[in-house]
Write a structure and sequence with these properties.
Blueprint: E1 2-8, E2 11-23, E3 26-35, H1 40-56, E4 61-68, H2 86-89, H3 97-100, E5 102-103, E6 106-107, E7 110-121, H4 123-128, H5 137-153, H6 170-181, H7 197-212, H8 223-232, E8 237-241, E9 248-250, E10 264-271, H9 281-290, H10 293-299, H11 316-319
Parallel strand pairs: 3-4
Antiparallel strand pairs: 1-2, 1-10, 2-3, 5-6, 7-8, 7-9, 7-10
Helix pairs in contact: 6-7
Length: about 325
């Protein structure tokens, strides 16, 4: 049995489980996938690609994918350094894998995709009013208040300054969590205690932004609203997840310049340590294919998603062939 999982603040919200079965001379890997935010759009085409690859090369290995909306199960994952080649692991190191894939000095997951929150800025409005991308929350408020008042004078009633992204879901919790982190004392400071003055000041600033930018009806809206505003372009700043678009993107602001915070998400692929060693070779072959450079180029880079394989960004010729 194999598990693909990701965590946001220790909350699992995407799972991908492989169950290895032998049928005659072939091998079927029964895969059970769970995602709360559209993971099937990534899983299905990649699984289909592997099945075709297996058929073309005579491996006689088939992944049978079942996609679920919710699954309450966990698995203990194996140290991938014991089963994968050093050459394959080195594709992901250095990189975000060193922060998200290791637990107790063991490599328990290889990232298939990565997501992180960003700030989108509309240069059309910033240039119009001679303002810059904010590096602090106070700068965001200052530019927001000024430009909002100017747009109201021009009867632009649908204009919004910021969204916050605080829906009543895990996503809203993530926004609060990273906002508090943006109030730590220095870049290297740990996450502030929830009873600390830093956490209290962060919550007060969240409230101040809502009130000064008139976000009562906007703060709780989800990504559907964000996508709508990206399409119509009538906004100043938007907080959203990493996505390639035609607007300026930057890290989120913080209490002071150089301090920021972002939730990291995505899909990680790992192996249950209780799987039988003699039956593992076929699934390792599938794992290595799904996490190969070629698959990342085909399904991530060329579809405006971010790959955790840093070396891909050093070879534009390979990416755009």
């Amino acid at each position: 049995m194999y598990l693909l999982y990701t965590k946001c603040n220790n909350i699992n919200y995407k799972k991908f489980i492989f169950i290895l079965l032998y049928r005659g001379n072939g091998v079927t890997i029964n895969a059970i996938a769970l995602s709360m935010n559209g993971g099937n759009s990534i899983y299905s085409p990649m699984v289909s690609d592997f099945n075709q690859y297996s058929k073309n090369n005579g491996y006689n290995i088939t992944i049978d994918l079942t996609y679920l909306s919710r699954l309450n199960s966990t698995a203990t994952v194996k140290n991938l350094q014991d089963v994968l080649s050093k050459e394959h692991i080195d594709l992901y190191i250095p990189g975000i894998t060193t922060q998200t894939g290791f637990h107790n000095d063991k490599l328990v997951g290889i990232p298939l995709t990565i997501d992180y929150s960003i700030l989108i800025s509309n240069s059309n409005f910033l240039n119009k009013y001679n303002r810059n991308i904010p590096k602090t929350w106070d700068e965001l408020i200052d530019s927001g208040v000024y430009i909002l008042n100017e747009e109201i004078k021009r009867n632009n009633t649908d204009f919004i300054v910021y969204n916050g992204l605080f829906p009543e879901s895990e996503m809203g919790f993530c926004s609060i969590y990273e906002f508090i982190y943006s109030y730590r004392n220095s870049v290297l400071s740990p996450f502030p205690s929830l009873l600390s003055s830093e956490a209290l000041n962060a919550l007060k600033k969240i409230k101040e932004i809502k009130e000064k930018l008139f976000l009562d009806d906007i703060y709780h809206l989800n990504l559907d609203f964000v996508n709508k505003k990206i399409e119509d372009g009538n906004f100043l700043f938007l907080k959203t997840w990493s996505t390639k678009n035609n607007y300026a993107t930057s890290i989120l602001p913080g209490v002071k310049e150089g301090i920021s915070g972002s939730i990291l998400g995505g899909h990680n692929l790992g192996i249950n340590k209780y799987s039988k060693k003699e039956k593992r070779a076929e699934t390792i072959k599938a794992l290595e294919y799904l996490t190969s450079r070629e698959m990342h180029i085909k399904y991530l880079i060329k579809n405006n998603k971010y790959s955790p394989i840093i070396s891909l960004y050093d070879d534009e010729e390979e990416i755009y062939l």
